[in-house]
Amino acid sequence: MNNYEYLKLNVYNPELINLSILALLFILCCVSIQKTEVQNLLTVEQSNQLKGFAIVLIILGHLWVHVVDSLPKLLFGGEAVALFLLLSGYGLTCSYRSRVVPHRAYFMARMKKVMVPYWIITVFLLSLDFMILNKTYSLQDIIMTMLGININTTTRYIDYARWFITFILIWYVFFFIAISYFKDGYRLFFLIICAVILFPLDYYITQLGFYQVFAFPIGCTMGYYYKDLNSAFKRQPTFFISIAVTLLIVVILYKFASSRIFYPFVPTIIIKAIDEGSSIAFCAALVIISATIGFYGYQSLLLSFLGTISYELFLLHGAFLIKYNPIINRSEASLPLTFSVFMFSISIISWIIHLSIVKVYVKK
Known about the structure:
Strand order of the largest sheet: 1-2
Low-confidence stretches: none
Strand content: under 5%
Helix content: over 70%
Radius of gyration: 20 Å
Number of helices: 15
Oligomer: single chain
Order of helices and strands: HEHHHHHHHHHHHEHHH
Mean pLDDT: 91
Number of strands: 2
């Protein structure tokens, strides 16, 4: 087992290796494309494929941030987190926009979809920590992390990703308040105000490391104006795809230039805001590209599969990638291959757990 919590993998050419992995992902996505029915903007199938693409970018980002000792410039892990939040806000808004939501039903739905898999995998990871690393946790930390409150270093590093659980639970509470006490556009206004307050609050006071703060309310906005967006896309798909290409070029140029142009001269909180804007632009480009592919009646089977198990992948990958990794060795040359094998292996584990959870817990 390789533990990369402290001793990192030496890579001297991160840009080339990162591009190799991204190119391999692109090829696999293209190979797995199949013909399907013509789709509207952001159907369930498209959302699923976007989640699949996002989880690969998150795992790849964690590879470079937590396993390797150097960083390439084309990392999109933060943008992928924004995509997850955007899709979450969009999906909730589409589900609850036109109906009254009983309190119990709303929280039971969130518990089944989010907390039940989280609890099961948390017990699994705590057990592995004890058996493999001989590591134990205090009762207080166990109770807090089981509640989804991961606000200290110990609980956040159980899988290096569970800060997101705390963050999304906060947004679920905000969303519940919005649909319970506000009407129509006032809901969006409330959620945007929450983001405006949360952004500087976490930066200056709580310092919990929350980021992509505006993605969730933007997703809610997309859900609220879905009919208008879908109609506009159908009328001018070529115009929208040109916007997507332009946004991708701008984001890539920003990633290459930001460290030299912005970082030395601009306050950190402003850089954080610009980064969030760049992430939203990246998400918009991916949504448009996915919609265009669906509009012509195609979908990627690989991304659909990864999207189906994306939540389990998110919860599992950090521990196996960073703390007990039996696959990725300390060879730079073999990194694209070993990362691919890791992705295949962790996907199989996630798929088995996903099927077990859906069969035993969620569908009851």
